[in-house]
From TrEMBL:
GO terms for molecular function: DNA binding. It comes from Pontiella desulfatans. It comes from the Bacteria. InterPro entries: HTH-GbsR_regulator, MJ1563, WH-like_DNA-bd_sf, WH_DNA-bd_sf. Belongs to the GbsR family. This is HTH-type transcriptional regulator. The lineage of its organism: Bacteria, Pseudomonadati, Kiritimatiellota, Kiritimatiellia, Kiritimatiellales. Keywords: DNA-binding, Transcription, Transcription regulation.
């Protein structure tokens, strides 16, 4: 994007449809709408865009734009590119599904899987103090949770390998 007039142009139908696709994906992944919008505009753009370009094209606040770009960077879904003579950060969308999925898993899924193991340990400790007829039933359910936890830890790396390259 060069100049304010380019930044202010409205989205064309193609851009709007691509952005809508990524907004829906963001919704499914329980991410803010702005994350989908930002990835969509960066994905469909043929030029790197800076924060202000994204903000103006999408008509979203500077805070939402900044936060959304931060989230996308943390996943590895976008990368910063250097534009000679310009001090702003410019962004392009990462197009390798493996890199994006791996980044998302590392940032969003792995921490939950890891904290789940700690929580199951706390649940077991609470059950050790529990007395009553239902103790055996509860123990079976906690064993089931632990099994799910273990399987999630083993399955996630396999799923990422299956996703493969770009």
């Amino acid at each position: 994007m060069n100049g304010a007039t380019d930044s202010l142009r409205t989205l064309n139908e193609l851009e709007s449809e691509v952005i809508a696709l990524f907004v829906r994906m963001a919704d499914v992944l329980n991410l803010p709408r702005s994350v989908g919008e930002l990835y969509g505009i960066l994905f469909i753009s043929t030029d790197p865009l800076c924060l202000d370009d994204c903000r103006l094209r999408l008509n979203i606040s500077k805070g939402s734009t900044s936060q959304g770009l931060k989230i996308l960077r943390s996943f590895g879904a976008i990368r910063t590119v250097y534009i000679p003579g310009d001090r702003k950060d410019y962004y392009v969308a990462e197009t390798s599904l493996r890199k994006i999925a791996s980044g998302f898993a590392s940032e969003q899924i792995q921490p939950h899987v890891a904290s789940g193991a700690d929580r199951i340990d706390r649940i077991r400790a609470l059950l050790d103090r529990h007395v009553g007829e239902e103790r055996e039933d509860l123990l079976e359910k906690i064993d089931l949770l632990e099994n799910w936890q273990r399987r999630a830890g083993k399955t996630l790396p396999l799923v990422l390998k299956l996703i493969g390259g770009s």
